[in-house]
C-alpha cells in the first residue's frame, strides 16, 4: 500500500474538518420554521404582520449586480448546460470552485476587465457553498 504524502494527509484532514464544520449548519437549513419576533406592524388596511427586524433584507442587495450574475449564469448554461454546476459533489470539485473564486478575486483586485470577475467570484463562492452541502449529504448517506 502506498504511503500518503503530507499533502494527501492534509487534504484528508481538511475534508473531514469541512464535513464536521458544515454538519450542524446544513442540518439547520433543512428544518423550516416560521419565525416570530413577537412584535407586530399594523397597516392602514388592517393587515397585521411580523416586523422585518432580524430578517434577511434581499431588497438591499444591488439589483445591477444580481442582473450581471444572472447574465453570467445564462452564459454558463449556454456553454455547459443548465445547472451543470449543481452536479458537483466532491472535494475535488469544491477545490476547483475555491481556486476559481480566488483567481477571479485576484483578477478583480488587479483591475482586469476582460471578464466580470466580481460576479465570477460570487458564483464560485455560492457554488463552493453548495458543494460543501452536497459533500455533507453524501457523507451522511455513506454512514447510514
Summed up:
By secondary structure, the chain is mainly alpha-helical. It is built from 4 helices and 2 strands; from the N terminus they run H-E-E-H-H-H. The longest helix is centred in the last third of the chain and has 26 residues, at 117-142.
Walk me through the structure.
- It contains four helices and two strands.
- Helix 1 (6-29) packs across helix 4 (117-142) and helix 2 packs across helix 4.
- Strand 1 (40-42) and strand 2 form a beta hairpin.
- The protein has one domain (39-142).
- A two-stranded antiparallel ribbon has the order 1-2.
- The chain is extended.
- By secondary structure, the protein is mainly alpha-helical.
Amino acid at each position: 500500500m502506498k504511503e500518503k504524502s503530507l499533502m494527501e494527509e492534509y487534504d484528508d484532514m481538511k475534508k473531514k474538518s469541512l464535513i464536521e464544520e458544515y454538519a450542524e449548519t446544513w442540518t439547520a437549513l433543512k428544518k423550516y420554521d416560521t419565525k416570530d419576533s413577537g412584535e407586530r406592524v399594523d397597516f392602514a388596511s388592517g393587515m397585521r404582520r411580523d416586523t422585518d427586524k432580524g430578517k434577511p433584507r434581499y431588497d438591499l442587495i444591488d439589483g445591477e449586480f444580481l442582473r450581471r450574475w444572472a447574465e453570467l449564469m445564462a452564459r454558463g448554461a449556454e456553454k455547459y448546460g443548465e445547472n451543470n454546476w449543481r452536479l458537483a459533489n466532491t472535494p475535488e470539485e469544491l477545490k476547483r470552485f475555491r481556486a476559481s473564486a480566488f483567481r477571479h478575486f485576484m483578477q478583480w483586485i488587479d483591475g482586469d476587465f476582460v471578464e466580470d470577475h466580481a460576479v465570477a467570484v460570487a458564483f464560485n463562492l455560492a457554488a463552493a457553498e453548495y458543494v460543501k452541502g452536497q459533500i455533507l449529504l453524501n457523507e451522511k448517506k455513506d454512514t447510514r
